[in-house]
Amino acid sequence: MIASGLAGSYARGYFIEKFYHHIFSSDVFIQQIIKELGLLEKLEWRTASIGYYIDDKIHRLNTPLEILRFEQLSFFDKVLLAKAVLSARQLKDPFVFDDVPATRWVIEKTNRSVYENFFEPLFKGKFGEYKNISAAWLLSRIKLRSNRTLKGERIGYLRGGFQQLVDKMAEKIESRGCEVRRGCEVKRLVIGNNKVEGVETTEGFLASDNVIITTPSLSKALSIDRIRYQCTICALFGMERSLMEDVYWLNIKADVPFGAIIEHTNLIPRADYGENLFYVVSYLQESDQIWKKSDKEIVDLYLEGIAKLFPNFHREDVKWWELARGRFTAPVYELGYKNKILPYSSHIEGLYLAGMFSSPNYPERSMNGSIRAGFECAREVTKMVGISCY
Ligand SMILES: Cc1cc2nc3c(=O)[nH]c(=O)nc-3n(C[C@H](O)[C@H](O)[C@H](O)COP(=O)(O)OP(=O)(O)OC[C@H]3O[C@@H](n4cnc5c(N)ncnc54)[C@H](O)[C@@H]3O)c2cc1C
């Protein structure tokens, strides 16, 4: 059973991801798959321009000079920040910090000003109101994000959209004689005497000795998944003009109901789409009020927020919008997360797990992590059942 999932796209005469997507140079597994599927010439590496909205102003934070000019941190704060980043990069094993709160690590290594003016808004943008985020997550993230030039970080995008990767993967699977069922929902896993018997689906019962669960909704239903997940709301807007001039990614510290704005057409040329595209995103919990609102109500709140940040923005500038929501969009990398990671084999015979909850998706869930988990799990299944098919 396959659908594009979180990496899925809207088809608007062109493909554009429902949730913004790019890859990092450290995502080597997905790059290998992109190559094998003949899509390498579409993978482009571009410098992502990063901004930070604080105290009523966008601060660009890409070049050493821009960082030196950032007045919310004193020179001393910047020295402390640079030292903390360097020490994180030099760490051999960030995962030993699994039980240390990220907040504590930052304040101990720097000071409260660096925490409040730099890290806290990033944590809020990423984890909403969660406080107990593990330092192992933060340190591993800093280590991973190393593809920087003096102009900023280089990130990769598949020109024409990641939908092409999803389609090519499905094509390849089918070309090997396997069946891909789109839009077919698994209602229930059927287990007898601690052994998998098959799955109950909207298209009837499918008998099977081996099943791989790839989605938290099913692993949770079996109570083998103790991970907490975040919800995400992500709106995409189409406009005739640019919202943020040259900024691709804007982190925000302001009284608005979202944590970041990502202007896709400030990474990939507008000419590919014939219009400007930007995302507005909130990470949250189901209990948050905004989660309960209708799509239209959320978009109205977002538009109000954008107008607060950009006085030249008028809602009439927006030609169209789409809104995507996901219930299981990222694990909360909280204290002790390492012990919650699910192994590929389960205690139920014939039942395997490979997805956001697997080890390749720590310290950050990604397309790379889920593809890698899928391959590693498949290898484990073939070993268990004694076949060697790839
Ligand atoms: C806002 C946002 C931005 C992101 N940005 C990036 C990025 O820049 N780079 C990156 O690499 N990753 C990014 N990700 C993460 C990335 O999209 C995911 O980590 C990855 O796609 C997860 O893939 P998956 O197959 O494990 O899970 P999912 O994408 O969640 O796929 C699960 C699939 O299972 C299906 N399913 C669920 N329940 C059932 C059922 N009962 N029966 C049948 N099918 C079912 C779903 O429809 C879905 O197709 C982002 C995610 C979000 C939310």
Description:
This protein has a domain at 63-150. It is an alpha+beta fold and 390 residues long. The chain has 10 helices and 17 strands. The two termini are 20 Å apart. It has helices at 28-36, 64-69, 75-90, 102-109, 112-127, 135-144, 163-175, 216-221, 295-309, 367-385; strands at 9-11, 15-17, 43-48, 50-54, 57-60, 148-149, 152-158, 186-192, 195-201, 204-207, 211-213, 229-239, 249-253, 260-263, 276-284, 318-331, 351-353. The model has no long low-confidence stretch (mean pLDDT 92). The chain binds flavin-adenine dinucleotide. Residues 1, 3, 5-7, 19-23, 185-186, 214-215, 217-218, 232, 234, 281, 326, 329, 355-356, 365-368, 370 line the site of flavin-adenine dinucleotide (FAD).
**Order of neighbouring strands in the sheet with most strands:** 5-4-13-14-15-12-16
Shape: globular
The average pLDDT is 92
- As a whole number of angstroms, the C-alpha radius of gyration is 22 Å
Stretches where pLDDT falls below 50 for ≥5 residues?
Answer: none
How many strands?
A: 17
Please provide the ordered H/E string of secondary-structure elements.
EEHEEEHHHHHEEHEEEEHEEEEHEEH
Strand content: 15-25%
Largest sheet: 7 strands, mixed
Helix count equals: 10
- Ends apart, CA distance between termini: 20 Å
Hetero compounds: flavin-adenine dinucleotide
Structural class: alpha+beta
Helix content percent band? 25-40%
